[in-house]
Specification:
The protein is built from 21 helices and 20 strands. It is of the alpha/beta class. The protein starts with a helix and ends in a 7-residue tail after the last strand. About 1% of the residues have low confidence.
Amino acid sequence: MNKKEQSVKTAGGFFRRHPLAILPLTAFLLFLFVEGLNARNPLGGIPVIFSEPAAFLVGFFVILTVLSLSALFSAHLPAFIILTVLLTVPGIVNLICLILRNSPFQCFDIVNFLTCFDIIFVYFNWTELIVLGLLILIAIVLLVVFAFKAPKSPVISLKKGFAFFFSCLMITVFLLIGFTSNETLPDRFDDYKEAYREYGFSYCFFLSVYDRGVKKPEEYSPEIVNEIVEEETNRTEETDDAPVILSCDHPNVIFLQLESFFDPFRIEGLSLSEDPIPFFRSLKETLPHGLLTVPSIGGGTANTEFEILTAMNLNLFGVGEYPYSSVLLSHPCESVASVMTDLGYASHAIHNHIGTFYNRSTVYPNLGFGTFEPIEYMSDVTVNPLGWAKDAVLTGEILKALASTETRDFIFAVSVQGHGRYPDDPDEDYGPILAEYRDDEKKSAAYRYYVNQISEMDAFLGELTSFLSDYPEQTVLVLYGDHLPPLDVKQSELKEGSVLQTEYVIWTNYAGNAPAARDLQSWELASYAFSLIGIEDGTLNRFLQNADHDDPGFEEDYQTLVYDMLYGEQNVYDGDPPEAAKMQMGTVPVRITGVRKADGEVYLTGTGFTAHSRAFVNGWYRDTEYLTPNLLKLENTRLDDGDEITVRQITHSFAVLGETDPFRYEEENEG
C-alpha cells in the first residue's frame, strides 16, 4: 500500500470513528461553494474570510447548524448527504437571480415565488424549463433512492447528536446577537447587492430569514407616541412658511411609478444615436425635480411602491423584507390612499400587469384603495417583444378613473413596459435608437432594447400630459422611476448619483414654472409633493413635513411612529385605527346586462369585459371568447330557464380576481 492509499485509509478510519468531525469540514467547503457562486468566482469565498471574519463565522455556523441536524437521525449518512445537497440550492438560486435580474436571492423571494408563475416565460423558454425540470426531478429521485439504499452506519448516539446540534445552534445565536449588537456586523443594509458582495451570501441570506419587521424602540409607550404626535401638530400650527408653490383647492393627484425608468445618459461608456427621453428631460428644466433614492436595484418594484405610499423607510424593516408579503397581508395601514380618502377623494390603483403580483389585490384594500384596475380589467392592451404590456394603455385607464367619480381623485398607477429580462442578441433589431456600450456587443444589444422601450414610455408621458393639460379639473402628476434597470449598472459607471437613485418630476396642469431641485428618499416623496400642494393630513406626512430631519432624535421618533402604526398599540390613531377598504376590482365594475342567441350561439352583453373574462353557468365554466368590452361569446353552451350566469376575471394562473352579480336567464326576456 503506497503512502497516498495509506493516508486515505487513515482518514476514512478517522471519520468512521468520529463521524461528527466531517460536519465542520463539509460546512467550510459549502461556505466556499456558495460564496464562490455569489462572487461568480470559484475562489470568491476566501476574501470574505479575511475581510469580514465575523460574517464568515456566522455564515459558517449557520451552515454547520443545519448540517448537524443529520446527527439527530439514525440514518445519519443519508440525512447528511441530503442536507448537504439542499444547502447548495440557495447558492445556486442566488447565482440564477444575479444573472437574470441582477439582484441577490433573499428569503422573501421564496414567499413571492408563487406570484411569479405568470412571468416565468420572460426569464426562461420552454427548452430551459424542461431541462431545469428534468434536472430537479433527477436530483429528487437520486436523493430518494440514496436515502433508502445508503448504509445506515456510522451511527451517532442521539445524546451526542443532540448535544452537537444544540451547541452549534447556541454558538450561532451568540455570534449573531453579539456581532450585531456591538455593530461588528450590520443588521440593516442600504444596498443589498453591495452587502452581499461585502459580507457574503451566507450571512446576508440568513439575516433575511432571521430578521423581520420593525424593531421595538428602546423607549416605547403611549405617552411617548402621543408626545411625538402632539409636538409635530403644534409645530404645524406655529409655522406658516411651508413651501406651498403648487397650491390650489384640492387638485386631483396622480402618482405614476415608471418601471426601470432612468436617464441612460448617466452611464459612462454608453453611446446612443438619439435621446430616448426628450420629454421627461424637458420637464426637469421647468418643474420641481431631483434624484430619488429608492430601496433596490434592478428589481423590487413593490418595495419602492411601499415607501412611496406609506412614507415608511424600508431600512427599519428586516433585511430583504417585502411588507407586501408580510405585515400588510393582514394589517390595515395608513397610506397616501387612505389619507386622501379621508379628505373626500376617491382613491384608485392602476397597474398594467397581473392583479395578484406582489399580492397587490390583497394588500391594496389594507392601504385604503377604493378601486384597483389590473391588466385583467383592461381592454385593447398591446405588448412589447417580451410580452410586457405597453404603458400607453395607462393613459386611457387614468382618464377613465378620473371620469368615474364626481369627486376629486387620487390615482396611483404603476407601469410595467420597461421590465427586464432584456434580450441581448446583436443581430436583432430592437428599435430605431442605436446603442453602443464600450466594446460589448451583447450588452450593447440589451441597452438598445432598453432605451427603445423607455423611448416609448417617454412618448406615453407626453401623450398623458397632453390629455391632462386640457382636463377641466386641476391635476398634479408625480412621475418617478422605481429603480435602475437590471443591466448590472455599477457605481463606477455613473456620471452622477448612485445606483440606488432614479429621478422624479412633479407636473401640474394649472401652475406656472417652479423648477425647484431637491434630492429625496422615496419615503419622503409623497410628503414633499403634498407640501408643495398644501396637504398636511396624515400622521407620517405631517411628521415628515414638520420634523427637523437633522435633529439627533429624528430617527428614533420616526421609528417609534412606524413601529406603533404596524406592530405597536396604534396610539397615533387616537382610538380610530384604519380599516381595510371595501375595494372594487376594476375602475368600472364588470356587469352582465343581457343574453342573446344567434345562429345557435350564445352571447353575453354587458360592460367591462376583457380577454380575461370567463363565463360560468350555474357555477360551471363555459368556453368563452372575448369579442368586445360589451360582448362575450359562449362556446358549446345550452341555456335553460332559470340558469344563473356569472363572469369572472381570471389571471393566467387561474386566480379569480372578481365576479359579476348573477344574471338569471329567462328565455322570454332574451335580448
